[in-house]
Design goal:
It is built from 3 helices and 3 strands. The chain is of the alpha/beta class and about 100 residues long. The protein has one domain: NAD(P)-binding Rossmann-like Domain (Rossmann fold). Strands 1-2-3 form a 3-stranded parallel beta sheet, covered by helices on one side. Helix 1 packs across helix 2.
Length: about 100
């Protein structure tokens, strides 16, 4: 039985697939390797005009890029640097991030 606020398992699978597909398209566009390349992530929040980073798909995308040894710079004008650092630490990405700009 589905309840409000809990998506069907198929929806979660499709959402995860789309994030992985996005990472693969970035890698393909960069001549099949992003190792050592610096990539700017412009926008990190869950949705537009908010500083909410809970359950942001950007975290999984960043993990995918880092899995191929990319170097990331993350910027979101609505997310304070402390909140961004917290989200990155929770996602176990903190050791890999080159720079985070303070948008607040």
């Amino acid at each position: 039985m589905l309840t409000a606020g809990h998506p069907a398992p198929q929806v979660v699978l499709i959402n995860d697939y789309q994030k992985q597909r996005f990472v693969e398209r970035i890698i393909d566009a960069m001549f099949n390797t992003i190792s050592g390349k610096k990539i700017a992530v412009l926008g990190f929040a869950f949705k537009k005009d908010t500083g909410d980073t809970r359950e942001t798909p950007a975290l999984d995308v960043c993990k995918g890029l880092l899995g191929d040894n990319a170097r990331l710079s993350i910027y979101d004008p609505k997310v304070c640097s402390l909140q961004l650092k917290w989200a990155v630490q929770v996602g176990n990405l903190y050791a890999y991030i080159l720079s985070m700009l303070d948008g607040c």
